[in-house]
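Late entry, evening session. Most of the bench is empty. Finally got around to the prediction I had been postponing all week. Sequence below, unchanged from the version circulated by S.P.
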Amino acid sequence: IGADGANSAVRKAMGVQYLSWNYDQMGVVATLNLAEWKQYPRSSSVEAVTSWTSSWLRRVGLPDGTSRQLPPSICSIAANSRAAFPLAFGHSTRYIAPGVALVG
């Protein structure tokens, strides 16, 4: 089973053609310390979300426009956690062969 990404040695050993292109954009990631978070156990990924009670929303109302951020907000960014990576698309022309499967 090959789960070794865009530069897959397993895919190369299979001799499978790989079609790709770059979006000329960067993705940015960081570890954020939030005022409040919730993880959904049925989700396939780790998600941090903000949540509020309906009584809080009734009391403070919703802000106008997009320039205001609803709390809870980002308290800080963890040291040395920021990273950037190029966004690209890639697709193998085959994902299975006798005794081999590409999964990621």
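Two things to note before I forget:
The chain has a mean pLDDT of 77.
The longest helix spans residues 54-60.
Will write this up properly tomorrow.
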